[in-house]
Amino acid sequence: xxxxxxxxKTAPEGYQAVLGLENYVRANVDHGLLHLIxxxxxxxxxxxxxxxxxxxxxxxxxxxxxxLFAVGAWRESPFFTEVERAALALTxxxxxxxxxxxxxxxxxxxxxxFSDRELADLILAISTINVWNRIGVxxxxxxxxxxxxxxxxx
Length: 154
What we know:
By secondary structure, this protein is mostly helical. It has eight helices and no strands.
């Protein structure tokens, strides 16, 4: 699959505006939690570039491999705190909005886990990764190629 469009080159002002929001979120949301949010939304949106980037970044910052794999099935996983679960549930509902938006149950759990400011910053973080995902999926943005794997002798 070839990249359709390089948004950063074609619309640099718009790209920089999204990057400005990204920089705000990075400065105001716990990095460990931010990696989980970005990875979860990217899984839901099918953005291979973002899944690759955010899992790689999380590993570099010390996140455990098993937790990253478990983001895909976080509801059944024992690896997440109640605060992380509230953020992941909010990520699911905001990413999938649908007809019902964010459920009252998910919102109440998020309000219990976060201050109003933290909740506002989480909403911005979830919204920002959804913008990046939509750019990546729409333009067929691809992750860097993997190094060739050695084949086992038969």
